[in-house]
Amino acid sequence: MANRRRGAALEAAILEAGWEQLLAEGYAGFTFEAIAERAKTGKAVLYRRWPDKEALLLAVLAHNGFEPPAEIPDTGSLREDVLILLRSGNRRGDHAAVLFSTFLSAYFNGELALTPAQLRAELFGDHSAALTQVIQQAVRRGELGPEPIAPRIVSLPADLLRHALIMNLGRVPDADIVDIVDTVFLPLVMADQGSQ
Q1: 66 with 125: CB under 8 angstroms?
Q2: Helices and strands, counts by H and E, the chain
Q3: Under 8 Å between Cβ of 69 and 85
Q4: What DSSP string runs through 12-68?
Q5: Which residue has better confidence, 166 or 49?
Q6: What are the φ and ψ backbone dihedral angles of 110, each rounded to 5 degrees?
Q7: Cβ 122 vs Cβ 66: under 8 Å
Q8: Contacts of 125 (CB under 8 A, 6+ apart)
Q9: Among 33, 58, 118, 177, which is disulfide-ready with 114 (CB 3.0 to 4.6 Å)?
Q10: What is the C-alpha separation between 103 and 76, in angstroms, rounded?
C-alpha cells in the first residue's frame, strides 16, 4: 500500500500540480477539480487549505518563485546590488510574461478579480521596496547623499525589466539588464542627487 501524503508533502504536490495545470491549460483550466485530479487527491483537500481559486493561484505562484525577493543584496556597491535584484527578477522571465498575458485575458473576461497591478506584483514581485532598501544601504555606506531619490527613479529599473520581460515573452539578455542599470538608473540617481 502506498504511503499517504500529508502536511507539507501533500501541499507541495498540490502546488506543483497547480503550476502544471496553469501552464498546460491557462487560468480557465485552473480549477480545483483539475488540480485535485492532477495531484491525485480529493477536491475537499484543496478547499480546506485555500478558500477560492485566487487564493490557490497566489499560493501556486509563490511556491514557484513568484514572490518578492526574500533577501536584499548588500555587496557594498549600489550598482552590484541593483544588478543582483534585476537578475533575480529576470529568472522569472521564462513563464512570467506568458502568465501575465493569460491573466490579463482572464481579468478582462471577468474571470479574475485581481487587478493588473496586483497581477504584476505577484508575477514580478515588488522590487520597488527592495530597491528602496538597496538605496538606503548605499546612503548608509556613503555612496549616496541623504537626499531622497524620486520614487519614479527608484522604481524605474524594475519597471524597465518588467516591460522587457513582457515584450520579449521571456528572459531579458544580461547585457540589457546592465544597460538599464548603467545607462538609465545610475545616471538618473546621480542627476537627482545633484539637483537637490
Answers
A1: yes
A2: 11, 0
A3: yes
A4: HHHHHHHHHHHHHHTTTT--HHHHHHHHTS-HHHHHHH-SSHHHHHHHHHHHTT-SS
A5: 49
A6: 80, 10
A7: yes
A8: 66, 67, 68, 69, 89, 92, 158
A9: 118
A10: 38
Nearest to 58 by CA among 130, 124, 123, 8: 123
Q: Tally Cβ neighbours within 10 Å of residue 137.
A: 19
pLDDT single digits (tens) 106-121: 888 888 777 777 776 6
What is the separation, in whole angstroms, between the first and last Cα of the chain?
A: 71
This prediction's pTM: 0.69
Q: 42, 45, 14: which is closest to 30 by C-alpha?
A: 14
User: Is the CB of residue 162 less than 8 Å from the CB of residue 182?
Assistant: no
pLDDT beyond 60 at 144: yes
Q: How many residues does the chain have?
A: 196
How far apart are alpha carbons 49 and 146 in whole angstroms?
Answer: 46
Cβ atoms of 189 and 149 within 8 Å: the answer is yes
Q: Across residues 107-136, what is the average pLDDT?
A: 77
DSSP secondary structure letters along 127-142 = HHHHHHHHHHHHHHHT
Phi, psi of 158 (to 5 degrees): -65, -40
Say how far apart CA 80 and CA 61 lie, in whole Å.
27
